[in-house]
Structure formats: structure tokens, C-alpha cells
Model the fold of this input.
Amino acid sequence: MATRLFDTHAHLTLGALAEDVPGVLERARAHGVFRVITVGTDVADSRRAVELASACDGVSATVGIHPHEASKVESAGLDELGELARHPRIVAMGEMGLDYYYDHSDRVSQRRVFAAQLELAQPLELPLVIHCREAVADAVALLCDHGFDGRRVVFHCFTGTADEARQLADHGWQMSFTGIVTFRKSTELQAVAREYPADRLMLETDAPYLSPEPVRSVRPNEPSHLPHTARFLARLRDEPLERLASQTTRNAEVFFGIPEDEASLS
Done:
């Protein structure tokens, strides 16, 4: 049986990917990736993500404001984001969160905009896609303060510590892994990926970023490269690729509320 993979986090609206969406999706399908989520990073990008998902079978979208963009956000943008979140092709809100590594936006603005998006998401009962770098304590506190303990939350591109991973697991949250897990020096992350509960595990490319080994030098990254990460993770967890693919795909379908028989990439 052919391996079927689900790329739960890509940015098909950016750069070279946006210029060749049909080719990107065709290459993905040829490599066993049958579903992709394109993720919004600000209001304009979220609007483009909705348009793209509306035009392409097998593509769903999220809407959100990345912490890097937080200092630019005004109330009108948040209002539009709330409207976009009600579109039928939207399967989650995000990516949202906190980034204390780069601090491209000041931390007060990051926390304000993250909290505002949590308030928008709360009544919609949409899952959340979280960006978090060196800010786990604050991110967890805000999520819990807004009632997301035990609800559908995924920390995308997780690169934290084993202790932080245990915190997320204790709250019942998901974790998704990018090509970073394949890098030779990612030993701590590999230890986390080896042990994280199988029913809370997902795969992503974060394309056009983070190409995995052995195509790490290839730019842009794209969904067709997801099998490299899947094969590495299967070996790491000492399980057949087919089982890992089936588990992570099912996890993603349940998490995002996408029926198994919904149209896939074509």
C-alpha cells in the first residue's frame, strides 16, 4: 500500500511556492503527500491562504498573526481575522504565539496579539497552531488562562527541551516536527521525537523553510520533501514507515477535523 502523508504546515503563499502552486502540489502528490495545510502569518497572508485553499482540492488553510508581525497589528486587522476564521476552508487559527528568540516584535505586543487571537478562537472551537521559541512558560500560561488546557493545540516546529515537551504532553497538546529533527546536531530534539506520544504526533515541512536532510541545501523547501522527515522519524522511533505515516495522518485528520474521504491533492 502506498504511503500517504499529510503536510500539516506549509506556506504556499510565499515566494517561489506561490509562483508555482500547481507544480508544487503535483510534486507533493507524486511523493505520497496527499494533503497540505497552508498557514497564514498576518491578515493579508491569511486572506491569500483562504483564496488558495478555496481553489485547490486537498489544500486547507489557517488564519493567524505570527508573533513577528504583532507590533504592526491594529484592531481592524483582528476584526478581519475573526471574519476570515469563519470561512469553510479554514481548519485552524494560527500560526500565533510568542517568539522571544528573535523578538522582531516587542514582547508586550506579542502577548497582546496572542491573547486577542485566543479570544477570537475560543467561541469558534477551532484548533490552534502555535509558534513558540524560548517562550514556553508564557505561551502555556496564556493558553491555560484562555481555557485551552486539554483542547486541540499543536506546537508547530517544536524545538524545545524534553521538560518543555513533557509540559505540553501533560496538557494533552500535539507536537509537529519539521526537517530540523533530521539535522545531525539535533540530538535533544531527536530524543523528544523518539518518545513523544504517538497519538499526538504530526509532520510538517514549514515550506519554504527548513529543508530536511538529505536535501537540506535545496531551496525552497516544499511539501514533496516531507517523506525525508517521515522516514527519519520512523527509523528514530523504530517503527515501519507505513505505520508512522498512517498514525500521523490520522492524527492530523482528527486534529483539524478533516474527513478521511475529503478530496485530496489532484
Summary: The radius of gyration is 17 Å. The mean pLDDT is 96. The first helix runs from residue 15 to 19. Residues 5-256 form a domain with the TIM Barrel fold (CATH 3.20.20.140).
